[in-house]
């Protein structure tokens, strides 16, 4: 893993890493000046993220880290940008870092950004209808995602708080205020491990599914070690969308559970604190740590 010195401009470091990669490709693998410029611009963005969040350099990024980056990025950018970044990384891995052979490629990830912006929250009755149309395993995942505000892949990473220490991040005393349950941890975007609260009744049902031996699961090109026999990732997302379409004739996707969580928590917290503070608390609970991102979920 690469180590990056403090007091160095992260953007400058990222741009240099991207430029060094493109020097080995320009004129031989890629002749188009426009493509070279676009790839270098995209790789600088990739480099900055993996430097800061994965503690590695652009050139040393593994295939699994590339898939993790693209999966996380899918909720932030449109399909065209996501495909450009995938192609840039793939070209680097085929011709520079040799992480991929010329016959291998990175998994194509579908952008969720537009869906996230357009989606709306579900009412309690609508959630009950969706849950009623799912298998027991998927239904439990839906209830947990709603109650704890989880992303689809985070369902695969649930661990008891006593079994894994969360990363050190800002936390107000009001975090989880007004809710009872058991503290667990999940691994979110960029590998960030954060605390989540799962209501006692759901925690009990979750523990009844605990696996004797953890199981390895690959979801959209990323490997996870899951400790519970519940679904998450693409399998759960597909189940949710299918059940929602069957029962409600529309679907906002499993990500709608995060919209619901954000809106319900804001309603609860604003009864005892100002909007700005409530927004900060919810941003911490959801793993954003930036209130402006959380506001997207309040539409």
UniProtKB/TrEMBL annotation:
Keywords: DNA recombination. InterPro entries: DNA_brk_join_enz, Integrase-like_cat_sf. GO terms for biological process: DNA integration; DNA recombination. GO terms for molecular function: DNA binding. The keyword Cell membrane does not apply. It comes from the Bacteria. SUPFAM superfamilies: DNA breaking-rejoining enzymes. The keyword Amino-acid biosynthesis does not apply. This is Integrase.
């Amino acid at each position: 893993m690469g180590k990056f010195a403090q007091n160095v401009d992260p953007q400058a470091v990222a741009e240099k890493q991207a430029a060094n990669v493109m020097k080995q490709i320009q004129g031989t693998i890629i002749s188009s000046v426009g493509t070279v410029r676009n790839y270098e611009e995209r790789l600088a963005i990739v480099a900055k993220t993996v430097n800061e969040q994965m503690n590695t350099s652009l050139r040393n990024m593994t295939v699994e880290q590339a898939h993790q980056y693209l999966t996380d990025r899918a909720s932030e950018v449109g399909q065209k940008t996501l495909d450009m970044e995938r192609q840039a990384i793939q070209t680097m891995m085929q011709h520079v870092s040799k992480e991929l052979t010329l016959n291998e490629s990175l998994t194509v990830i579908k952008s969720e950004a537009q869906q996230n912006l357009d989606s709306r929250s579900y009412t309690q009755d609508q959630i009950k209808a969706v849950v009623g149309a799912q298998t027991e395993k998927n239904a439990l995942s839906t209830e947990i995602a709603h109650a704890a505000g989880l992303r689809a892949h985070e369902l695969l990473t649930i661990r008891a708080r006593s079994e894994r220490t969360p990363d050190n991040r800002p936390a107000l005393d009001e975090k989880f205020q007004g809710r009872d349950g058991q503290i667990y941890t999940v691994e979110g975007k960029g590998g960030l491990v954060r605390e989540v609260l799962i209501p006692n009744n759901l925690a009990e049902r979750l523990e009844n599914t605990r696996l004797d031996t953890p199981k390895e699961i690959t979801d959209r090109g990323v490997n996870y070690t899951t400790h519970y026999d519940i679904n998450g990732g693409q399998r759960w997302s597909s189940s949710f969308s299918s059940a929602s379409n069957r029962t409600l004739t529309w679907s906002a996707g499993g990500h709608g559970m995060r919209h619901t969580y954000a809106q319900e928590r804001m309603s609860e917290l604003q009864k005892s604190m100002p909007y700005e503070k409530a927004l900060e608390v919810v941003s911490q609970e959801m793993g954003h740590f930036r209130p402006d991102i959380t506001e997207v979920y309040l539409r």
